[in-house]
Amino acid sequence: EVQLVESGGGLVQAGGSLRLSCTTSGFIFDHYAIGWFRQAPGKERERVSCFRSSDGSTYYADSVKGRFITFSDGAESTINLQMNNLKPEDTAVYYCAADFQPGCPDQWLAYQYWGQGTQVTVSS
C-alpha cells in the first residue's frame, strides 16, 4: 500500500525557515514524481514544487523560486521541502503527493496518492 506522511510544519516568523519531509512507503515503481502542494483558506490548491526520481529534476512555482528547495534523502524514501525566507503569504496546509506517470504534472488532479497535510503558519 502506497503511503505518504508529511512532517515538519509549524509556526515561524517571517524570514524564518522550515523543512517539511514526505516519508514514502509501498512504492513498487522505480520512477515517480513527488509534488508539494499548498492550499490556503479560500484559495485553490497550487503546486509549489516537484521532484522527479528518474533524473532528479526539480520544478518550482515562480512564487517560491529561490526560496524553496526540494530534494531526496539519498535513498529517496523521503523527499524534503526546505523553505527559506518564509513570507506570511506562504501560510497554508502543505501536502506531498505521488504520481507514477512520466513527467512532473502541475495539476493536483494528476497525482494519485496524497499525504494528510501539515500546517505551515508564517507570522508577520
How would you describe this structure in keywords?
124 residues; mainly beta; seven-stranded mixed sheet; 49% strand
Number of helices: 0
Distance between the termini: 40 Å
**Percentage of residues in DSSP E strands:** over 45%
Tell the overall outline: globular
Portion of residues in helices? under 10%
- Alpha-carbon Rg, integer: 13 Å
Oligomer: single chain
Structural class of the secondary elements? mainly beta
Structure at a glance:
With 124 residues, this protein is mainly β.
How does this model look, in words?
The protein is mainly beta and 124 residues long. The protein has no helices and eleven strands. The chain has strands spanning 3-7, 10-13, 18-25, 33-39, 46-52, 58-60, 68-72, 78-83, 92-99, 113-114, 118-123. The strands form two sheets. Strands 2, 4, 5, 6, 9, 10 and 11 form a seven-stranded mixed sheet that branches. A four-stranded antiparallel sheet has the order 1-3-8-7, with no helix packed on it. A hairpin with a 5-residue loop joins strand 5 and strand 6 (58-60). It is globular.
Question: How is the secondary structure organized here?
Answer:
Layout lengths: L2 E5 L2 E4 L4 E8 L7 E7 L6 E7 L5 E3 L7 E5 L5 E6 L8 E8 L13 E2 L3 E6 L1
Parallel strand pairs: 2-11
Antiparallel strand pairs: 1-3, 3-8, 4-5, 4-9, 5-6, 7-8, 9-10, 9-11
